[in-house]
Design goal:
This protein is mainly α and 506 residues long. Helices cover 69% and strands 7% of the residues. Helix 15 links the parallel strand 7 and strand 8.
Length: 506
């Protein structure tokens, strides 16, 4: 028990001793921190005092500089004020001088007006005096003088009038020829003759059987969908498409080319490729119409009219492309209207739209002229344009100058050299001449004029003509054609060199 009490007393004593020791240490530490803070405070006060002194010094310096600057500016303002005063004085002096001169000018003007009045009065007085003396007015005297001169010099006057008339006639005819020639030279397009058939090249004659199909199923289905006749004969690696509708013929050609490229020729594929071709031709028609109006510089036509213009790309008249012809008439009409002082805008539009009826004349009954009038009236094209285009075939009288211009431009475009195709005999002769020229060169196996004479395909012996010689041969054939033949448009020469290696496995 005694030991337990001793332990308790020892523990309490230790606790009290530890408490007093902690308090003593804390007091010492607080005293140390307070001393440090006091030293730091003194230092800060010293720094603040230095800063205040430095700021005051800088402020004094800035103030002094500001005073100097103010002094300088005051001097400058004084100088400017003096200059302004001098200028004001000078201006006042000039104003006085101007006022004096204005007054002098007014006086001179009044004197001139008075003199003019006096002269007019004097003139009238003299005329009255002369009339009294001659007993006739000035008009009567003038007429009498002219009558005497006419009687005395009647023959001379008639001769002068005749010469003047002849001279003017020659000059006008010369001017008219110059205007027509200038218009044709500036706006004549090259034209390529078109026919009612198209040719599709085949990779081999074996494909002909696929196109015909079992019991003619494929070819009948194709002709039914396109409305175009396929002519398959003994011609090597070619099929002829025949139709008087150029749009249908172009669709069928494109569809057939797609089928040949695909290789799978059956009714379902035929329908698919015909639809694809129709879509592509519609896009091409739209593009052709837009290009035509952009080239003509006419951008305010309805989209339906632009579409019909694009259809003219696939329409021909006597071998002349209808769209190229319409654009040519438009540009020639514009040039003539500008020279003759007519309405250029009306002449341009009437020239471009004069054959618009040809875009639908194969589908709708009626002449292209009447169809064109109905189309323009339907889409609210101005009456002036309708009048200008309706008389180009003489069905309606030419009521305006623009109508006469469109008639003349249409005739120029249709009749100029190269615009319309030759007769059949000349056409066939040109094809024969092309093939003869190609066949005359050494190493040529055979030559074919295709695409209406617009392309010449030349097959050569591979053992006689190498690749470099093939290039030279094509150039030589082109030179011969250019020097010996006359033809519209361009002729493409293709030299084909084919090497076949055949081995037989046994």
């Amino acid at each position: 028990m005694t030991i337990f009490l001793f332990i308790i007393i020892s523990v309490l004593a230790g606790i009290l001793l530890g408490y007093f020791i902690r308090q003593s240490l804390a007091q010492k530490q607080a005293n140390s921190i307070e001393a440090k803070l006091k030293i730091r405070l003194e230092k800060v006060k010293e720094e603040a005092k230095n800063l205040v002194a430095e700021a005051k010094e800088k402020a004094d310096k800035i103030l002094e500089e500001a005073r100097e600057e103010e002094k300088k500016r005051k001097n400058q303002l004084n100088k400017l004020e003096e200059r302004l005063m001098e200028r004001e004085t000078l201006l006042d002096k000039r104003q006085l001088d101007l006022d004096e001169k204005e007054k002098e000018i007014k006086d001179i003007y009044e004197k001139i007006q008075n003199l003019k009045t006096e002269l007019e009065n004097l003139k009238n007085s003299e005329l009255e005096t002369l009339e009294k003396i001659a007993k006739m007015t000035i008009t009567e005297a003038k007429n009498e003088l002219f009558e005497r001169l006419e009687k005395e010099h009647q023959a001379e006057i008639l001769e002068l009038l005749r010469k003047y008339e002849d001279s003017n006639k020659e000059e006008l005819e010369k001017k008219a020829r110059e205007i027509m020639a200038s218009a044709i030279e500036r706006y004549a397009h090259s034209n390529v003759s078109e026919v009612t058939t198209s040719i599709v090249d085949l990779p081999s004659d074996d494909i002909k059987g696929k196109i015909i199909g079992r019991e003619g199923r494929n070819i009948r289905h194709f002709e039914k969908l396109t409305g175009v006749e396929l002519i398959i004969d003994d011609s090597p690696s070619t099929i002829i498409l025949s139709s008087f509708d150029p749009v249908r013929r172009e669709i069928s050609k494109l569809a057939l080319e797609k089928l040949i490229a695909d290789g799978r020729i059956q009714p379902a594929k035929i329908e698919e490729k015909v639809l694809e071709a129709q879509a592509e031709i519609r896009d091409e028609i739209k593009k052709a119409g837009e290009e035509a109006v952009y080239e003509a510089g006419i951008l305010d036509l309805p989209p339906e009219i632009v579409h019909l213009l694009g259809r003219l790309k696939f329409r021909t008249s006597y071998g002349q492309n209808a769209l190229a012809h319409s654009l040519e008439v438009c540009l020639i009409s514009s040039a003539l209207a500008s020279e003759l002082g007519a309405n250029v805008e009306i002449a341009k539009k009437a020239g471009l739209l004069h054959d618009i009826g040809k875009a639908v004349d194969q589908e709708i009954e009626g002449t292209h002229l009447e169809l064109g009038r109905r189309i323009l009236q339907k889409y609210q094209i101005s009456e002036e344009i309708v009048k200008a285009m309706q008389s180009h075939h003489g069905d309606y009288p030419a009521e305006t100058l623009e109508a006469v211009i469109v008639n003349a431009s249409d005739a120029i475009s249709a009749s100029r050299p190269g615009a319309r195709k030759d007769n059949l005999e000349a056409y066939l002769k040109r094809l024969a001449n092309l093939e003869e020229i190609a066949a005359s060169f050494e190493g040529v196996e055979k030559a074919y004029a295709i695409s209406g004479g617009r392309e010449l395909r030349v097959f050569v012996f591979p053992e006689k003509i190498d690749d470099l010689q093939a290039f030279k041969l094509a150039q030589n054939i082109v030179k011969r054609i250019e020097s010996e033949l006359k033809y519209p448009g361009e002729i493409k020469v293709t030299v084909i060199r084919e090497t076949r290696v055949i081995e037989v496995a046994r």
